[in-house]
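Recall that a protein's primary structure is simply its ordered list of amino acids. Everything else, from secondary elements to tertiary packing, is in principle encoded there. The following example makes that idea concrete.
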Amino acid sequence: MIGALLCASVLFSGFAQAEEEINKRLFKVAVVQAKDHPHGLGAQKFAELIKQKSDGKMKVMVFANGTLGGDAQVISSIQGGTVDMAMVTPGLLTGINKGFGVFGLPFAFNNFEEVDAVLDGPLGQSLLATLPNNGLIGLDYWDHGFRHVTNSKHPITRMEDLAGLKLRVMQIPSAVDSFNGLGANAVPMSYTEI
């Protein structure tokens, strides 16, 4: 499962806006995870860099811990213009383009090189190109693991270890069906519900 797709809203409806107005902007960034999670830390670093590179004219407010909602709510908020940016699980964008579902399939890739080749290649880029017609701009993909299963009961080293194990999975059919097919009891839920 690929971890995150950095999405942004179409920041301005018209291109006739003055550069001065663009340069004095406050951006709201939603992070579903905690502020000390890699997504939260990345968003904080992004905020620092924006402030530094714009000489303080542009600022980023980071809302961590799902303060602005779970992934689905955040996607809607970006489309509605109340949130400017977020890192979301690409698989949750299957309502926009079913092709994003490939990123919700467990064990689809063997290593980071394969993942990067798909994300940076024609498939990943063509999927990003479908977002603007839906009020989103995909800025980039961010790896967040794709071959690990975590739980609080026991280590997973063999397929049999999944038998009957209750697992939280992303709210996308490919993830639910895959883990149920492997013998787990897949429970779809937002990261904010963990």
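The first helix runs from residue 19 to 23. The mean pLDDT is 83.
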